[in-house]
Amino acid sequence: MKHLINTLCLSIVLTISVSAQLAPDFTITDTEGVSHTLYEDYLDQGTTVVIKIFFVTCPPCNAVAPSVQEKYVDWGEGQYDVQFMELSNKDWDSNADVAMFKENHGLTFPGAGLDGGGFAAQALFTSGDFGPFFGTPSYYVIGPDGEVTVAPNLFSVEEAIIATGATGEEEDMDQPTTAFNLNVVNAATNAGLAGITTKIGNAGNANAATNINLSTYLTVEEIFAAYPNLTTPTLYFDKTSDPLSGVSTIDITLMVRHILGLTLLDEDYKLIAADVNQDDKISGIDVVALRKVILGLSDFPNGNVWQFDPPSVSLMTNPGNTIQLNTTAIKIGDLH
User: Fold this and answer.
1) Residues 147-165: pLDDT tens digits?
2) Global pTM?
3) Torsion angle defined by CA atoms of residues 208, 214, 217 and 218, in that order, rounded to the nearest 10 degrees
4) Alpha-carbon distance 264 to 277, whole Å?
5) Of 116, 131, 163, which residue is a domain's last?
């Protein structure tokens, strides 16, 4: 935890919490050409943002600049959950002017002038919606919930940051995580099956799923971090290789006997495997389709070489434990 400002300093500092109105969103392009959007890049990621209002030739701004940089370093220099940025409130300060100001004082946090959108962004805070503007430099501390605290001087910035719950420290990397095992079993042999293509997407939207190499991830949390835009992360399975694996004329005979009612297929996976054209029934059409596949006259209808039960598995976290991701692979046409 950062060193707190001494009690005497805090006793004379004024901070004003503005809870009635949340911070307006804005986007700036800093002196390095990097774009920064308040909510998307920071608040929505759990980061507290300190807005410093200044202008390049402001005497107090120049005097306090090294102290602001020191404060920025104390809070992690933007690496963790606190970010600083400075916005000029003068329409004659360009990004080039702000860049020179930063260079003169060794500042490492983002800054923007008129052409970087800094002037327009600062006006959102100094227009009076957040109380009277105390002049430059002034500070607006914005928590991840969007609540704004006006800190008219640098002394009050510390307590305002702390009030947002920020620590300025790296998250505890020893937090328990969720390990996982993927188990794909061939229904016909009850043995493990290789050559599976695994895809990830949102639940109920297999067509939009993308390939994922699960062997590159150790935990479910790592997968979630790699696919942050998924709201219901789900694994889908596919296999198109080995189309004739386990398939022979014996399967055609078994299919015909089932259709005639002579010897019914006695396992659920065999009923799925016998439905060659995947129309949810077993008929002579399936017999003809399988015969053409065996003779090399055609491929499996709709490319249905393998089916999976279940066809997808939802990902979820269970920190400190290992979850099992199980599915059974059914080779279409393999009934014995």
Assistant:
1) 999 987 888 899 999 999 9
2) 0.50
3) 130
4) 19
5) 163
